[in-house]
From TrEMBL, chain A:
<dbReference type="Pfam" id="PF01558">
    <property type="entry name" value="POR"/>
</dbReference>
<dbReference type="InterPro" id="IPR029061">
    <property type="entry name" value="THDP-binding"/>
</dbReference>
<dbReference type="InterPro" id="IPR019752">
    <property type="entry name" value="Pyrv/ketoisovalerate_OxRed_cat"/>
</dbReference>
<dbReference type="InterPro" id="IPR009014">
    <property type="entry name" value="Transketo_C/PFOR_II"/>
</dbReference>
<protein>
    <submittedName>
        <fullName>2-oxoacid:acceptor oxidoreductase subunit alpha</fullName>
    </submittedName>
</protein>
<dbReference type="InterPro" id="IPR050722">
    <property type="entry name" value="Pyruvate:ferred/Flavod_OxRd"/>
</dbReference>
<dbReference type="InterPro" id="IPR022367">
    <property type="entry name" value="2-oxoacid/accept_OxRdtase_asu"/>
</dbReference>
<dbReference type="InterPro" id="IPR002869">
    <property type="entry name" value="Pyrv_flavodox_OxRed_cen"/>
</dbReference>
<dbReference type="InterPro" id="IPR002880">
    <property type="entry name" value="Pyrv_Fd/Flavodoxin_OxRdtase_N"/>
</dbReference>
UniProtKB/TrEMBL annotation, chain B:
<dbReference type="InterPro" id="IPR011766">
    <property type="entry name" value="TPP_enzyme_TPP-bd"/>
</dbReference>
<dbReference type="GO" id="GO:0016625">
    <property type="term" value="F:oxidoreductase activity, acting on the aldehyde or oxo group of donors, iron-sulfur protein as acceptor"/>
</dbReference>
<dbReference type="InterPro" id="IPR051457">
    <property type="entry name" value="2-oxoacid:Fd_oxidoreductase"/>
</dbReference>
<dbReference type="GO" id="GO:0030976">
    <property type="term" value="F:thiamine pyrophosphate binding"/>
</dbReference>
<dbReference type="GO" id="GO:0045333">
    <property type="term" value="P:cellular respiration"/>
</dbReference>
<dbReference type="InterPro" id="IPR029061">
    <property type="entry name" value="THDP-binding"/>
</dbReference>
<feature type="domain" description="Thiamine pyrophosphate enzyme TPP-binding">
    <location>
        <begin position="55"/>
        <end position="202"/>
    </location>
</feature>
<keyword id="KW-0560">Oxidoreductase</keyword>
<protein>
    <submittedName>
        <fullName>2-oxoacid:ferredoxin oxidoreductase subunit beta</fullName>
    </submittedName>
</protein>
Amino acid sequence: MATTKTNHQQETLEAVIIRFVGDSGDGMQLTGTQFSDTSAMFGNDIATFPNYPAEIRAPQGSLYGVSGFQVHIGSVEISTPGDEVDLLVAMNPAGLKTNLHAVKPGHTIIVDTDAFTKKNLEKAQYESNPLEDGSLENYQVIEVTMTSLTKETLKDVEGLDNKSITRSKNMFALGMVYWMYDRSTDHTIDFFKKKFSSKPHLIEANTKVLNTGYYFAETLELIPNSYTVAPAKMASGTYRIIMGNTATAWGFLAASEKCGLDLFLGSYPITPASDILHELAKHQHFGVKTFQAEDEIAGITSAIGASFAGSLALTTTSGPGLALKGEALGLAMMIEMPLVVVNVQRGGPSTGLPTKTEQSDLLQTLYGRNGESPIIVIAASTPSNCFDFAYEASKLTLEYMTPVVLLTDGYIANGSAPWKIKSVKDMPEINNNIIQVAKENWHPYDRDEKTLARSWALPGTPGLEHRVGGLEKDRVSGNVSYVPDNHEYMVNIRAEKIKRAQNSIPELVPEFADEGDLLVIGWGGTYGSLYSSIKHLREEGIKTIGFAHFNYINPLPKNTVEVLKRFKKIVVCELNSGQFAKVLKLNFNDFDILQFNKIQGLPFGNEELVQKFKQLLK
Amino acid sequence: MDTTVEKKYTFKDFSSDQEVRWCPGCDDYVILRAMQKALPEMGVKKEDVVFISGIGCSSRFPYYMDTYGMHSIHGRAPAIATGTKLANPDLSVWVITGDGDSMAIGGNHFIHALRRNVDLNIILFNNEIYGLTKGQFSPTSVVGQKTKSSPYGNTQPPFSAGELAIGAQARFFARIGGNTPKEMTQLFIEAEKFKGTSLIEVMQNCPIFNDGCYDEFTDKAVRADKQLFVEHGKPMVFGKERDKGLVLKGLKLEVVTIGENGVTEDDILVHDAKEPDPTLHQMLVRMYYPKVTGIIRSFDDVTLEERKNDQIGAVKANSKFSVTDDLFFSGDTYEVE
Ligand SMILES: Cc1ncc(C[n+]2csc(CCOP(=O)(O)OP(=O)(O)O)c2C)c(N)n1
Ligand code: SF4
Ligand SMILES: [Mg+2]
């Protein structure tokens, strides 16, 4: 029973940002995901971002129990979930209170008036009812008695308890939004059929409420018109919507299949990295072994042990966990063992802001180990390219016999976007340094001339028995050595090996302009925000601004200095107090490197970036 | 993997070319030699043997074995070994650790390895002191022990390794004196045979920083009277004259003399190492006199890698995904023209 739309006034928009908010139990994540999936299948480009409360079961109706989901859809390229919203759907007073600031003045708010009870208003710390006191007069408020209408709709459906009835009111809201944005309800109805295949009364109930919401919006005079967002121009192919953490997990699955080594993950749960563990734990059918360890140290050391035995081994964590892994990461560097560490960064220091995003672990990642211990550090920059960089991390670790840290962050890890699906057969080859037969005079630290990677002999291989360890080794025999010159030689060659990885990584290609007045530099998860604000300036006619985004942090792309030279001013934008700027200053001291930093646990907003760049261009 | 070994090894096949650097007279030499003698008797291939150690005097051990090995970081060997064994269950994986390595800095990994029952063999060199760092007290040092960091006597009560291990669900626990190489060799062979985590505590003398700490039990002159070497299925009899034995009185073990007060050999408790209930094993471990040695507990149970491999097998058999393409292109995908 799909909905059909009668003729109605319609306005076409390029892009729309919608935020669904309500209590943790109101199903806002599901509502948002349904809307974004439907839009993606319609052909829009999309970006989404969830916002959960940190508490698992926060008291109902409380300000800190608000759960939200933001969707940005467009007929144009969409690179972030967006800042201010065109439509806010608030299922309760607490949701309205905590999200009102994000609504563009004059834009629309849909509220469930049934939830605006005295008790809920008190819990949301409202002194008077905002629906009555005039405080919302700058917005178009659509008041709907959603809970009662849902109850009324379902009064004849059998087998429903009160709780299931009130819980389906989010589908009423979704139905309304589908009508407003001219979206079909088909995908969501199919979803009900799959999800409730053994509970037909729930299929019926949810479909009924969804459709009632849809037709309610159509007949409601309060909604003057509906909008449409045309399909975006995207490369042809097969797509799916993917979350950053899932893309990361899948990148490793792809790498494991390509290189033929089993995947091993040793990990200890931590927000916002746990979803990678959850995802890989599902895929034992590919032979993946996940090991939930007793702590972060056992997470990484079990991975080192698995790598020693010949697995493609990884460990996943967030800032505090990386701190615990430091010593073991040094061991992996010293014994020159393949190992990927994923750090999904969150707000620090210490426990910091676990559910918020930040880029403040860069220096910890680069330098947070004892002794001279350089490793490869790369960073993903969008939810979908987490796949590519997880794959790349696996490739680099196996080809260079060194740990690789992949940095992502809470923003791209939890955000989702369309992913043009990649097949393993189209991914680049992955070489490894495994040897099976002992050549005359073989030693474990014999190096490949080009990459300087040492050879990798796996237990079980006859004739290649050898010992590795954290003590310094003789450059030839690999036996323990305290000889001063040898130590210096080994420190240098380990560093040189990391530098050689420059030969395997792409050069930096600035976007928008090859040369000009201002070069905006970013790295990692800020790509979408920086890109869209610079695009915005270009559309205003400003052509002398270029954009260089780094995915490779150590080593830096070979041509970095050439790119820097071509611009008059350089500004490094990052969600920390200037860590990458420090790295660049350390490497290239001839440049005057400016900074733009934000440390609020939030991504950059378009407006603040545009203002900053305009000011720098003056 | 083919487990039959055609080649007959001798202890030389397991000795590396590295010069052994422990202090003269250290029991670590005894353990090394016992291991090199035990390995040819185990029926495992040399290339399948892996030694993983932490940090300490004892942890230098892998350098002296001509097998695969890793000298890792302080306390973490059980976790590393767990990864190695899970990744390749065909390997024979050994953990070498000290009392500080396993019960201070690595206490967490130690108890969790025992709880999980991965098929590892852990050799604990317990010298009741930090050897490598030159003589501080350890978690097994006794109260009052004077060390560099406790010049007026240690104030921290010790762990008993066996008690801790059995509390952490250890399925196999054995204890042996550092000066009884023949029995030690035999225990290493038994540990390898046992499927699951085996822990062997060696009462290891450190002649430099804690000399004689076990003399009251291990000295040749008193050993027979002060140690009870238990064997599964045999009565727990000890003493030079084999006339002493253990009986259960109420909730306590008691030493009795056969032939006195009407006690006959039939009254003596028979050792059951395979009993799942650890109560009696805990009591044996805790006895001060006699010091109980030999295999105190050896209870067969499913190993972690068996559980994991069974699960992977079952998941594979029921899965619609055999390659990643199947997964990536499944579910809610859509076409863009
Ligand atoms: C992280 C770390 N902390 C401290 C040390 C110093 N350290 C090395 S060995 C050791 C104690 C070793 O004692 P034990 O495990 O009993 O081994 P033994 O030397 O007695 O065989 C200490 C504290 C270290 N190497 N690494
Ligand atoms: S310090 Fe003690 S334990 Fe270490 S080698 Fe010397 S005697 Fe052996
Ligand atoms: Mg010790």
